[in-house]
Every structure is written in C-alpha cells, then in structure tokens.
Amino acid sequence: MEITGIHATPGYSGFFFDDQRAIKQGAEHDGFTYEGEPVTDGFDEIRQAGESIIVDIELADGTVVRGDCAAVQYSGAGGRDPLFKAEEYAPVIEGPVADALEGRDATDFLDNAESLEQLEVDGDRLHTAIRYGVSQALLAAAGSATGKTKTDVMADALGTEPATEPVPVFGQSGDDRYNNTEKMFVKGVPVLPHALINSVEKIGEDGEVLLEYVEWLVERSQELGPEGYDPRFHIDVYGMIGEIFGAPYDRDEVVDYFADLEAAAAPYPIQIEGPMDVGNRADQIDAMVELREGLKDAGVDVDIVADEWCNTFEDVQAFVDSGAADLVQVKTPDLGGIHRSGQAVRYCEGTDTRAYLGGTCNETETSARACAHVALATNAAQVLAKPGMGFDEGYMIVENEMRRTIARREREQLATDTDEVTADD
Length: 425
Prior knowledge:
Largest sheet: 8 strands, parallel
Enzyme class: lyase
Helix content: 40-55%
Protein name: methylaspartate ammonia-lyase
Distance between the termini: 35 Å
Strand content: 15-25%
Binding site for (2S,3S)-3-methyl-L-aspartate: 172, 329
Pathway: Amino-acid degradation; L-glutamate degradation via mesaconate pathway; acetate and pyruvate from L-glutamate: step 2/4
Low-confidence stretches: none
Shape: globular
Strand order of the largest sheet: 8-15-14-13-12-11-10-9
Number of helices: 15
Subunit structure: Homodimer.
C-alpha cells in the first residue's frame, strides 16, 4: 500500500509550554501565568499556549491516518530541542518530509521511520517533535495497510511479544496534588501522583512538606482506594532534593531523608524522579550513581528515576549502562521517532533498570494513544497518563486504548484458533 500524500495542520496540544529556567529562577505566579520575562530562547512569555501539528498521511486506497507532532512542556531545557512552533515547522512536513516519504510502501513501518530519523534539512536533523508525530502517522499507516493493531506493528518492528494485560498507568496530578490524587485513589490508579514538587516551598526547606504529603498519600489511599488497592507512589521533585541538601548525595543527611521518605510511604513502595539537576548529563549520572549507591549501602529501599538530561536514546543508554537509576524515563517526544521510544524500553531488558514510558502533559490524545501501543508492545514497567493536567482525561485515553487493543487482539486470536480447529476437522 503506497503513501500518496502527507499534510500538516497547526493545532493545539494538551497543556502549555513553560520556561523552566525562568520558573526555577523565581518567576512568580500571576493567576495561571507567570510574571516576568522569559530567559530561554524562543519563548515570548514564561508560559505560553502549547502547540502541535496534526499530520495526515493518505494511502493509495483513500484511507487517511493521523499522528500528532508535540513537544514537552519544558521545551528548550535540559538539553532538549528548542521551542516547537507549529507555523514554522508545518512547511517542513509538507515539503522535505513529504518528498522523502510519498511513494514508499506503508507496510514498511520500521524502514519508513528510520528514513525519517536520518532525514536532514539544510544540514540539520528534523526537530524531535516532527519525527515523533510523523512516525506516529507511519505506525497508523502500517496498521491500516496490514490490518494489524498498532501494537502488533510495533512488536513486529521491535521483535517483542506484546503484553496481555494493560501496563500500569502513572497518573500525574499537576499542582492540584490533593484533589487530583484523591480522584486517582477512587479509580485505583496503580502508580501516582507525580505531585509536581518543583519549588522549595513545595518540598520544604528541610524536606518536611514532602514528608507530610507522603504521609497523607498513605492515609487517603487506604480510605479511598478500592479493596486490595496496592499503589506505588512516584513523585517528581524536579531536582529540589539537590537544591535543599546539595552534594555529596551519599552522605548521612541525604540518605536519612530518603529513609524518612521510605518510612512515610510504608507499606507502599516509593520512587523519586529527578532528585537533583546538576546541569549536564555526565555530572547528573555521577550524582545519581552516588545517591543510588548510598541508598543501597544503607539499605534504604527508595527507587530513583532518571529524567533531567535523559532525553535521547543515547542518553537512556548512558544512564542504564552506568546503573544511575532504578527507573529511566523514556520521554517519548524527546526521542524523536516513536519506534525509538520502543527501542529505549527494550534497551532496559536484562538490566536492573526498569523502563518508564513517559512523555509530557503537553501532548495530544493522538500521541497518547500511539504511546499506549508502544507500552503494550514492549511491556514497559509503567506508562504515563497524558495529555493534560486534569488527570481523568489522560487516564481514560491511555487505559482505554490499551484495554481496547487487548480485547481486539484476543478476539482475533480466538478467531484464528477457531479457524485452525475447523480446518483440522
């Protein structure tokens, strides 16, 4: 089945672009926005509307399939590609990208996606958001052309056996870390709440505010969760533990704080994302190795999660190879082609690092559904509920896509088994 056309339409994403550097430097809230001037290149405001590009691929039989280009909330930070502006990049998709892909066989997903990864315009690789969105459309095109689920197309490309149950979904609360988390408890969300601990005020000058919050998580989970509920707490601290304690991270003061977090979360497991942000990949890896070894030596059972400076496939490899994290976030828009996210999850196989298929609140429902198929195809440790910060919508989109796909695969397998029995008779 031939690809006959590619079209790009600027649109919105599920949240906003935020200038992380300006926020970390003390920008104050002005209602939903922030006061002050942006400091990261490309930003006109500290908080501005998130953008996407809707990519439609036409096939020879008239079918039209979709993928969405999107970039993370904190674009331009931590070594990521610059701010993604839809009007600027749409002509690239309808020009050089279309020229490279039109006429190709839609069933060759991996070849098509790899050719997109290698494509250069004026000597530069395509923005990660372009590779992300167009590859989603290529995945959908292959599914349509072959009659397979996108999970099976991805599994075939990666050489995996898909999960037969939904991958645990990780809910993110945003700043509404109490109300949204209570919603998660009622729905029995397996991994939660993210909590957006991105300032000293939210963690406490000595970490006491976060400890109180974790104690609240235990209490309310037991009051509101369904029978037999056994959550895993996952909190993103945006480097704030490093801000309040500083290096070295294997010293008693730091290790004791993590022991306090473990005790506050008991009887449930807890994992801390982005404990520090030291400004570059090499030093970030060293700091996280130092912390992880300190926790291990002290017998403190708190998992740490790599996020900052872990953006590309090569970054994931570096963190995994160094043993710098218990979990590594595969930040889907930052890896470019969606198959690269799948490959990054697979890279964790056989190591003591688990793969968290993440992303950002600033994606779309289309990219979130595509990632649900990557999660199933690779049987990732957990997958992010996205887009948006309202929780319910993102959880519904990701969980339902996995359930629907599993049910379809079961029906197809049953039909195959029935046909085989009939043929034998």
